[in-house]
Design brief:
single chain, mainly alpha, Arc Repressor Mutant, subunit A, Tetracycline Repressor, domain 2, 2 domains, 10 helices
């Protein structure tokens, strides 16, 4: 009798554990589906132009789930940027270490450019959200943007300053201004890609075009 009760209790616990695991998986799937849908719509329509209903319909999920998981549309927008912040821009601190010589300086520039281009090519919507965020005067995700994306400017500025000390670039240049021009050139190249493709038949999606763009950027920011 005791064995029977013990088996029954064990079976109930096992079933409950499976249900909890299944619920957790479903909840995570719902959450990720909402983030994925929101990224597409925020990229195309912006924060103001996107409604909770739009996101819910695009994801095929009840709109109440947005409030449940994120507290509303702005919370979901913050989550989208936080995900980008964690997955993409954490690379900057690793790549932009002070270079020991000019060869390493060029390699690190190339790595940074490649990472930025891959962001655009692999997840265009993420790239578009970032570009929109740069253009916003005020944003509910301002602190997230400042702690992650704007910190890249500081890292780039420090990187160019260290290169300047090694005389890889001229002493008369302002490292922070160089960082702004460098980052701006890369993002503008990504913004203009569809126009260049339409009018000239070239795109960053093409390996040769992308490599040529990388080489020219590296040359430009080395021969200063």
């Amino acid at each position: 009798m005791k064995k029977s009760v013990s088996k029954s209790t064990h079976l109930k616990k096992k079933t409950a554990s499976k249900r909890a695991s299944s619920n957790s998986t479903n909840e995570n799937g719902t959450r990720l589906a909402l983030i994925k849908a929101a990224k597409v719509l925020f990229a195309k329509q912006g924060l103001r132009g996107t409604s909770i209903r739009d996101i819910a319909q695009y994801a095929g999920i009840n709109s109440s789930m947005i409030s449940y998981y994120f507290g509303g549309k702005e919370g979901l927008y913050k989550e989208c940027l936080q995900e980008i912040n964690e997955t993409r821009f954490s690379m900057a601190s690793d790549i932009l270490s002070p270079p020991k010589d000019e060869a390493e300086y060029r390699v690190r520039l190339k790595m940074f450019i490649e990472n930025m281009f891959s962001l655009f090519l692999e997840d265009r919507y993420t790239g578009l959200i970032i570009m929109r965020e740069f253009d916003r005067a005020k944003s509910p995700a301002g602190p997230i943007f400042k702690s992650g994306f704007l910190k890249v400017f500081e890292l780039l500025g420090n990187f160019f300053a260290s290169a300047q000390k090694k005389k890889f670039i001229g002493a008369h240049h302002d490292p922070l201004l160089l960082a702004s021009v460098f980052f701006g050139t890369i993002t503008m190249q990504m913004r203009m890609d569809h126009i260049i493709q339409k009018n000239h038949g070239r795109s960053l999606k093409d390996v040769k075009t992308r490599e040529k763009a990388e080489e020219q950027l590296i040359e430009f920011f080395t021969k200063l």
